[in-house]
């Protein structure tokens, strides 16, 4: 995609985000944009960075590591948003500032064990299978509180909140329902753990960011609306 297209698209997405916050009666800085850059070439990320974007989400580990090397001159905040398999945990723990896709305690413990001591704790979100889809990863909603009790004890991780990828819906009303359920879980977590840095609801993408913002998202993961179709 051309530089002008990426820049124009980022402006348009930010305008959508700002309008959604206004419509929800929330402060203008109450949610942030994560540019999902999987499968996109290095030049597109550079163009987005020049347009003011700093946080980028990657799904594929080797591709992300290659981009990190190529873009090491840029102060990018790297978020891992793909499935974390046990054999990938070390690289994720060493190379990223955030991981949104912690879906079970085994992975959390591996990330904790492999996080280098010289780095700050790895920011994590617990992925929740909020729509109960057999094909999706994520903790069952009923298990969130029990998992959280262990997550907050892992010293090399900073448990920041919840993430979900709901089943797609066509209408705003239907889109809001799973986001509402995730927000309720998030609020109950914060009430139970008032001393933890629980400040992140990672939900909403190109097609449903307005619904996510209406339900309290603090981080929306947008790819195609910025970089075009995969």
Task: Report what the structure shows.
InterPro entries: Ala_racemase_N, PLP-binding_barrel, PyrdxlP_homeostasis. Keywords: Pyridoxal phosphate. Belongs to the pyridoxal phosphate-binding protein YggS/PROSC family. With 230 residues, this protein is α/β, with parallel strands linked by helices. The chain has a single domain (3-227), classed as Alpha-Beta Barrel (TIM Barrel). The protein contains 9 helices and 8 strands. The chain has helices spanning 3-23, 42-50, 61-70, 89-95, 105-114, 144-151, 172-192, 209-214, 224-227, and strands at 32-36, 55-58, 77-80, 98-102, 122-127, 157-163, 200-202, 219-222. Strands 7-6-5-4-3-2-1-8 form an 8-stranded parallel β-sheet. Helix 3 links the parallel strand 2 and strand 3. Helix 1 packs across helix 2 (42-50) and helix 4 (89-95) crosses helix 5. The longest helix is centred in the first third of the chain and has 21 residues, at 3-23. The chain is globular. The N and C termini lie close together (11 Å).
């Amino acid at each position: 995609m051309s530089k002008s297209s990426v820049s124009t698209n980022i402006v348009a997405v930010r305008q959508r985000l700002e309008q959604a916050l206004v419509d929800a009666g929330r402060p203008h800085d109450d949610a942030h944009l994560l540019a999902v850059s999987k499968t996109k070439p290095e030049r597109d990320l550079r163009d987005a960075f020049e347009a003011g974007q700093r946080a980028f989400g990657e799904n594929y580990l080797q591709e992300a590591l290659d981009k990190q090397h190529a873009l090491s001159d840029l102060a990018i905040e790297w978020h891992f948003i793909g499935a974390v398999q046990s054999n990938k945990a070390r690289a994720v723990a060493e190379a990223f500032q955030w991981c949104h896709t912690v879906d079970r305690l085994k992975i959390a413990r591996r990330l904790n064990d492999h996080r280098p001591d010289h780095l700050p704790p790895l920011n994590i979100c617990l992925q929740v299978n909020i729509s109960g889809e057999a094909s999706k990863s994520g903790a069952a909603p009923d298990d969130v509180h029990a998992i959280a009790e262990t997550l907050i004890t892992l010293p090399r991780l900073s448990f920041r909140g919840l993430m979900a990828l709901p089943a797609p819906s066509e209408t705003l009303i239907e889109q809001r329902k799973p986001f509402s359920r995730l927000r309720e879980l998030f609020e109950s977590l914060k009430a139970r753990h008032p001393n933890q840095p629980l400040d992140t609801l990672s939900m909403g993408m190109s097609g449903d960011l307005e619904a996510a913002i209406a339900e309290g998202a603090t981080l929306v993961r947008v790819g195609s609306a910025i970089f075009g179709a995969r």
